[in-house]
Structures are given as structure tokens and as C-alpha cells.
Amino acid sequence: MTGWGQDGPKSKQAGHDLNYIGLSGALWYASPAGQAPFTPPTLVGDIGGGSLYLVAGMLAGLLNAQKTGKGTVVDAAIVDGSAHMMNLLMSTQVAGLLSPTRGESFLDGPPWSRVIQRQIISGFLFNVSSQNSMRNL
């Protein structure tokens, strides 16, 4: 598994999770509107964009080896996996269903789909009732 892939202009450069998810666009959408992007857990890049795709490639390689007796090279780049996971968001944006401005879309704009801070015992209240029938609960 590599950050930038086995070849290409950045293949020999060092990088970290924030570099990969920043270039893929995932960092922008993971942050609140009106604020600079924040540092999310490594779940987005290293684990979701990298490890998930590496494991899928390894499993496919094992199946291929069982069938053909030949090995497989798995090229899993964190930036590629992170960008691939952004396809759903980008396609909904192109279709006009998702605003390019953070905080104005169905998934991150309405009060029923964001983290709100309230005076509770400790921490935050997570309110995720995005369906019409759940908003009135």
C-alpha cells in the first residue's frame, strides 16, 4: 500500500493521511461550514481509502491465485481510494443534489443532520434524523 500510488508524479514523495484526503476532496466535506477543515481520524484516508482497498485487492488476488496458481500485484494507493469514496458525493453534486458549499446540503446543512452541543452530562448530542418521519420525534 502506498500513499500516492506506485508510479506518477508524487509516487516518490512522502505523505500523510491529511495530504491524501485533502487532494481527494474528502477533507473539505468532512469539516463544518465557515471553518477551516479540521483533522478527522485516520478512518477516512489510511483505513477507508487505503486499507479497505488493499484488503479487497488481496482477497481478489487470493481467489485468482487459487484459480490460476499465479500471484497478483495489488496497487492500493490511499489517495486513489479516498478519491473513489468521494464519487458518491461528487455525483450528487453534479446532479444538483449537493451544494459545493459546506453547510448547505441535505447531508450537512439542516439542523437534523449535524452535531449540536447542548448542556448534557458530558459531551455532545448527536442528532441524525434525516428522514421526514424522524424529524418530529
Summary of the model, kept short:
The protein has 137 residues and is mainly α.
CATH-defined architecture of the largest domain: 3-Layer(aba) Sandwich
Structural class of the helix and strand makeup?
A: mainly alpha
What is the typical, i.e. mean, pLDDT?
A: 77
User: What is Rg?
Assistant: 19 Å
Percent strand: 5-15%
**Lateral arrangement of strands in the main beta sheet:** 1-2
Q: In CATH's first tier, which class of the largest domain applies?
A: Alpha Beta
The number of helical runs is 6
Number of strands: 2
The CA-CA distance between the termini, in Å, is 45 Å
CATH topology-level name of the largest domain? Rossmann fold
Q: Helical content, roughly?
A: 40-55%
Low-confidence stretches: none
- Shape descriptor reads elongated
Whole-number tally of structural domains: 2
User: Which sequence of SSEs, written as H and E, runs from N to C?
Assistant: HHHHHEEH
Task: Tell me the CATH superfamily of the largest domain.
Answer: Crotonobetainyl-coa:carnitine coa-transferase, domain 1
Biggest sheet overview: 2 strands, antiparallel
Layout of helices and strands, plus pairs?
Elements: H1 17-24, H2 26-29, H3 43-68, H4 78-85, H5 87-94, E1 113-116, E2 125-128, H6 132-135
Antiparallel strand pairs: 1-2
Helix pairs in contact: 1-3, 1-4, 3-4
